[in-house]
Amino acid sequence: MSTPFDAIIVGAGPAGSATALLLARAGHEVLLLDRREFPRAKPCGDCLSPEASRVLDRLGLLADVLAMRPARLNGWRIISPAGHAFAATFAPAANGDPRVETAISLRRELLDAVLFEGARRAGAEVRTGLHVTDLLRDVRGQASGVEARDHDGRTLRLHGRLVIGADGLRSVVARRLGLVRRAPRLRKLSLTAHVPGITGLGRFGEMHIAAGACVGVAPVEEVEGHDVAASPLANVTLVVDADRFGRDVAPDPLAFFACTLARFPAIASRLPPLDPPLRLLASGPFDWPTRAVVADGAALVGDAAGYFDPFTGQGIYQALASAELLAEEADLALRRGDVSARALRRYATRRHRALRGARMLQHLIDHVVRRPPFADAAVRRLARAPAAAAALIAATGDLLPPRRLLSPAVALSFVFGSRRRPEAP
What we know:
By secondary structure, the chain is of the alpha/beta class. It has helices spanning 14-25, 51-59, 62-66, 91-94, 108-122, 172-177, 242-249, 253-261, 265-268, 315-336, 345-369, 372-383, 386-396, 408-416, and strands spanning 5-10, 30-34, 47-48, 71-73, 75-79, 85-89, 103-105, 125-128, 131-137, 143-149, 155-165, 188-195, 204-210, 213-219, 234-241, 281-283, 294-295, 298-300. The strands form three sheets. Strands 1, 2, 8, 9, 10, 11, 17 and 18 form an eight-stranded mixed beta sheet that branches. Strands 6-5-13-14-15-12-16 form a seven-stranded mixed beta sheet, with helices on both faces.
């Protein structure tokens, strides 16, 4: 029997690597596992909300991320099915903190490599190429490690006092714990590509909405001299209703990708030819709720702990923020020698409180976006209500509590509009 680790973390994405870094920094023996070798491509919109920069700074990794020369986004521009649009910047909600005046947009293979290396430097033992297939349990039924298979098909049994599932939407850990609540009801799939040569991007991300589909576009690399006329590499992520379009995607994903983007007039004319060897990465569905995020000897974090919809682009921040909460509570539990579900319950409570408002906002936005007449009306109104538009962009940037969208000032701006012109991208 191998000497048990204090914590075994399954999945080395942002949530897993950040948790490993923090627990290792606290003096625990940590094993971080991933089935892929790093760096590796990952389907994602690549954008971190502004508040994520403060978390990266607390992790000691913000300078390393900025050294990757990410794009810095001043805000977002939203375009409705009928062509109405509004834009707003993050800066007014940043309160003078330069870390959060802009969002970061960086390819996930680069971001994840920085986080992964940060965990290694903090003292975590890292192993890649191991596919976790099951959990080990002690005589009480408490999780006590993992069973994994390496590239050669050999089975390893790795023991740990605490098992943390950070292994994404289809988490093996969540399934083996019986914590997945139900199959997805909101069935969306995404196709992501990194496309050079898109004109007119500037320093705003863009979200284009159509019936049954939306597409996000954002640069993912720094532009020399802040040249807004430049055409940097950009992330283009198309999200569609899988029930409606799934059969059309399967025969030729690239053809479907190009054809569907042509439905968005505000972006179609700015795209270069979308031909091979353009690489598409697919993901979805995203609606994976969990019954709980803790069990005896185990906890879930990041997408493995439950996810809904990527429209607001808050996933990476939520993963990093949840990792901070879990690391704090797991450290206490490990030091007390009690990693039962009861001992880890405070993590579940704190995570729920921290994410509750953002999740409610995600559900509301999805309700509007999936109904083109509602989306047109909302975007048209926000174009005439700069205070409400700024508050919405700040809330989706994690700079403003979503409950502030219900404040009298924001509500009055949305209902009656304003003479002040909105921010121009």
